[in-house]
Amino acid sequence: MSEVHPGFAGSAGRSVALCALALSWLAGTAWASDGLASPLREGEVPAGAVPGTDDAALAFDIPSLPLADALKRYAAVTRQPALFRSEILAELTSSAVRGLYAPDVALELLLEGTGLVAEKVRTGSAITLALKPAQARAEVPRAASLGSLAGYPSLLQARVWDALCGNARTRPGTYRSLLRFEVDEAGQLRRPRLLGLTGDAARDAEMLEVLRSVRLAHAPPPDMPQPLTLLILPTDARGGTRCRDAVGRAPS
């Protein structure tokens, strides 16, 4: 099983990235789900992202570490320095951050549970993040903080994965691909496209057909950012999840 890291703090037009071991929304908070793919390498930038900008979506792979060490790794990826008094970091441990996130969101996840918050300090074109203790506030259960998004990404991820596994030609395991699609009000996947080809034109075409056939019983939450992006990795990449033993249907 893996962790899912979604988010919804950004505008409705922002993309959402779903990875087989790390389902990641480009802006938001962290939650758990069953994993179906693998996270990108730390610092890997998707097409169209500009490192160091507020809107860039960067790939993070930061485990739970002493907070000072985690902040160093965060700064290495984002090139955004953080200012803090060393004593406020003493004995604090970061939360793990794995997946695609805007820098602001990744830092929020990193600081989760530490009692610290980050405040932006702008000096001309430069941005520095100042860490300070958060004001005391009542704990909000994680599930409640997810609002209407709770559970939907993992369900969507599972349906897409099962659909790909159910077709002998598109069955994951030997190829890498980056898919993008939307989900309409009826729960139907729409406008599928491949951002990363598999190297097999017939399989690429079949993947689009498979995606068009996916439909969920429930409409997506109205506050879910779209479009969605799904990264499929070979099973030998970081021990990626395999399809079940069922044999996929023969390609038409």
Automatic annotation (TrEMBL):
UniProt keyword list: Cell outer membrane, Membrane, Signal, Transport
GO cellular component, one term: outer membrane
Residue span, Secretin/TonB short N-terminal domain: 80-132
Source species, domain of life: Bacteria
Signal peptide: 1-32
Name of the featured protein: Secretin/TonB short N-terminal domain-containing protein
